[in-house]
């Protein structure tokens, strides 16, 4: 489904969002106060505009309120980031994603109605740290403080050549296996009879502690 996105602030984060949305054939309006940044995206976005997003009249004239999603990707200037989020909220945008620089900033953004508050540097730092500590965990998504979804590489011979029924992840670890990736082949929602091979990547969901326990068994 084609949707309308406006990305405000074309630093590394905003630019990366624009590029992926454009690749996925979505309508993207890219806005930045800096002309060079806008020019860099002129061939990528549906429309790229030089504007100060803190100016409410400008956002009104761009009919920002009619966009399905607005991404406020202004980073270091926290005041501008908050003000722009507030204006797009008041203009009636139904879904707003804003980048936060720190936890206090994130709280303010949630209070003024940002639907998603993201901390790219903090989250990426956490992912890298998890990967350093647990190289077998390839991907890691904290669903909440206690539940995690993770992709774990099978490197222990104790798991190799066994079916999910034999491995009994649910009873032994409290984990549900949602996918098995074997090379380029992905089995989503695998059956009990599906067998795990060396270097397969299994996606599991369950208590964070159980994911860590499974990872420990790979070493
Ligand atoms: P990143 O860490 O993602 O590179 P930056 O903070 O460096 O983020 O970049 C944010 C972008 O937001 C910059 O290109 C900057 O010109 C833009 N920006 C800052 N203030 C405004 C504003 N009031 N209106 C539009 N764009 C802005």
In short:
The protein has 9 helices and 13 strands. The protein is α/β, with parallel strands linked by helices.
Question: What does this 3D model show about the protein?
Answer:
GO terms for molecular function: monoatomic cation transmembrane transporter activity. It holds the Pfam family TrkA_N. This is Potassium transporter Trk. It comes from Loigolactobacillus coryniformis subsp. torquens DSM 20004 = KCTC 3535. The protein starts with a strand and ends with a helix. The chain folds into 2 domains: 4-118, NAD(P)-binding Rossmann-like Domain (Rossmann fold, 3-Layer(aba) Sandwich), CATH 3.40.50; 124-217, Regulator of K+ conductance, C-terminal domain (Alpha-Beta Plaits), CATH 3.30.70. It contains 9 helices and 13 strands. The strands form 3 sheets. It has a 6-stranded parallel β-sheet, with helices on both faces. The protein has helices spanning 12-23, 35-40, 56-61, 78-90, 103-111, 120-133, 164-167, 169-173, 208-217; strands at 4-8, 27-32, 47-50, 69-72, 96-99, 116-118, 137-142, 147-153, 162-163, 176-182, 185-188, 195-196, 201-207. The model has no long low-confidence stretch (mean pLDDT 94). 36% of the residues lie in helices and 28% in strands. It is elongated and about 65 Å long. By secondary structure, the chain is of the alpha/beta class.
Roughly how many Å is the radius of gyration? 22 Å
Instruction: Name every ligand kind in the structure.
Output: adenosine-5'-diphosphate
Low-confidence stretches: none
Q: What is the structural class?
A: alpha/beta
Integer count of domains = 2
Beta-strand segment tally: 13
- CATH class identity of the largest domain: Alpha Beta
| CATH fold-level assignment of the largest domain | Rossmann fold
Give the overall silhouette.
elongated
What composes the largest sheet? 6 strands, parallel
CATH architecture annotation name of the largest domain: 3-Layer(aba) Sandwich
Summed up, the helix count is 9
Order of the strands making up the biggest sheet: 3-2-1-4-5-6
Strand content: 25-35%
Q: Spell the H/E element sequence.
A: EHEHEHEHEHEHEEEHHEEEEH
Mean pLDDT level: 94
Distance between the termini: 44 Å
Write out the CATH superfamily name of the largest domain.
NAD(P)-binding Rossmann-like Domain
Q: What is the share of helical residues? A: 25-40%
Domain RCK C-terminal: 135-219
InterPro entries: NAD(P)-bd_dom_sf, RCK_C, RCK_C_sf, RCK_N, Trk_Ktr_HKT_K-transport
Pfam families: TrkA_C, TrkA_N
Protein name: Potassium transporter Trk
């Amino acid at each position: 489904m084609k949707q309308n996105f406006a990305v405000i602030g074309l630093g590394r984060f905003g630019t990366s969002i624009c590029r992926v949305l454009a690749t996925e054939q979505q309508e993207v309006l890219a806005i930045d106060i800096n002309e060079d940044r806008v020019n860099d995206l002129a061939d990528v976005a549906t429309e790229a505009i030089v504007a100060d997003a803190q100016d409410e009249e400008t956002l009104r004239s761009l009919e920002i309120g009619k966009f399905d999603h607005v991404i406020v990707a202004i980073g270091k200037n926290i005041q501008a980031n908050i003000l722009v989020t507030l204006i797009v909220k008041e203009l009636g945008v139904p879904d707003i994603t804003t980048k936060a620089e720190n936890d206090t900033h994130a709280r303010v953004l949630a209070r003024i109605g940002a639907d998603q508050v993201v901390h790219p540097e903090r989250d990426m730092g956490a992912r890298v740290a998890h990967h350093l500590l647990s190289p077998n965990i390839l991907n890691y998504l904290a669903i909440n403080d206690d539940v995690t979804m993770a992709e774990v590489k099978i490197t222990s011979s104790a798991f190799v050549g066994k079916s999910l029924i034999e491995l009994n992840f649910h009873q032994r670890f409290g984990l549900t296996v949602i996918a098995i990736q074997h090379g380029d082949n992905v089995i989503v929602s695998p059956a009990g009879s599906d067998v795990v091979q060396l270097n397969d990547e299994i996606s599991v969901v369950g208590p964070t502690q159980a994911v860590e326990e499974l990872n420990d068994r790979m070493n």
